[in-house]
Write a structure and sequence with these properties.
Layout: E1 22-25, E2 28-37, E3 45-52, E4 59-65, H1 89-95, E5 99-103, H2 115-129, H3 131-134, E6 136-146, H4 148-159, E7 167-171, H5 180-183, H6 197-202, H7 210-215, E8 229-234, H8 243-254, E9 260-264, H9 276-294
Parallel strand pairs: 4-5, 4-6, 6-7, 7-8, 8-9
Antiparallel strand pairs: 1-2, 2-3, 3-5
Helix pairs in contact: 2-4
């Protein structure tokens, strides 16, 4: 008998048992480390799921995409201003009636663009497959990302079939990679640098890969089917110029949309320089926007 080589293939993530549930906060169930994809030749990709307990029916979904310059980062890290929150932002969203999905994705040291976009498309497909097991309504999915994660959230929202995503929130995200050289102060950015974070994402310096840089830019993919957007960016961001969020807002308006662009006065990257109250307001705006997009009720500041 020949060896059954099909047995060497990884198991189908859609059929794997879900992780054992934990209770990180009152009213919240956490499934940590569910496998959603196994890229060929790569590590298994996992996601955490924060779920509201005792939901009356299928719940809307927020997919959070972590930052880290596409090169590092943790899937459950919403940024330094929120690490000390008790309960944390994801538990608060779950208490507000959302399932919160925090996926890993391949970093730039593992694979270049479009691997990251493909991974987020894979987690959306996995959520649709496992919706019945998890009590989800994937037709009400909002993407939210910070920094590089905001870039990937926007890129995914704009490249999925219309209706897959009902809203997208970006915090201080790059949106037009070829435009970075113009938007950054003179002498602070070199589009020919093969070691920049953008070059690591693209597989080469942006100036030498103009087509890839455009394809990796959310502004390139804006069309009539784009979902609603909330763009939050600090006016004093020293790492990602606020002009990057303005560029995406302008592209959305040119396509007939009405994005909500909020330039946060005095804020640097990661909301450095903001008071605790103003940083909390960025989260409250995000929650209120997600509620509008998902068609849920409740006051904008609840869920704490």
């Amino acid at each position: 008998m020949p060896f059954p080589f099909h047995l060497l293939a990884p198991p189908d993530p859609a059929a794997l048992p879900l992780p054992h549930p934990a209770c990180p906060a009152d009213g919240v169930t956490l499934l940590r480390g569910a496998v959603y994809a196994v890229p060929d030749g790569g590590r298994p990709l996992t996601t955490d799921l924060w779920l509201p307990e005792d939901a009356a029916g299928p719940v809307p979904v927020v997919v959070f995409v972590h930052g880290g310059a596409w090169h590092t980062g943790l899937r459950d890290d919403p940024g330094p201003r929120f690490r000390a929150w008790r309960p944390g932002p994801f538990a608060r969203l779950a208490r507000a009636g959302f399932a919160v999905v925090c996926p890993d994705y391949r970093l730039s040291g593992e694979a270049p663009h479009p691997a990251q976009r493909d991974d987020l498309a894979a987690v959306l497909a996995w959520l649709r497959t496992r919706a019945g097991d998890l009590g989800l309504d994937p037709s009400r999915t909002v993407l939210w990302g910070e920094s590089a994660g905001g870039h990937l959230a926007a890129l995914t929202a704009l490249t999925q079939p219309p209706g897959t995503v009902v809203g997208c929130v970006t915090w201080y995200a790059p949106t037009d990679l070829p435009g970075l050289a113009e938007d950054r102060p003179e002498g602070t950015y070199d589009a020919h640098d093969p070691a920049s974070f953008e070059a690591l994402l693209l597989g080469g310096a942006p100036a030498g890969r103009p087509d890839t840089a455009r394809d990796a830019s959310p502004v390139t993919h804006v069309g009539t089917g784009a979902p609603p957007f909330l763009l939050l960016h600090g006016t004093d961001d020293s790492l990602v110029p606020p002009r990057q969020s303005v560029r995406l807002a302008e592209a959305l308006r040119a396509a007939g949309h009405h994005p909500d662009l909020c330039l946060v006065g005095g804020a640097d990257h990661l909301w450095v320089g903001l008071s605790d109250a103003d940083a909390a307001d960025c989260f409250a705006r995000t929650l209120a926007f997600a509620r509008r997009c998902a068609g849920t009720g409740g006051a904008a500041g609840s869920g704490t």
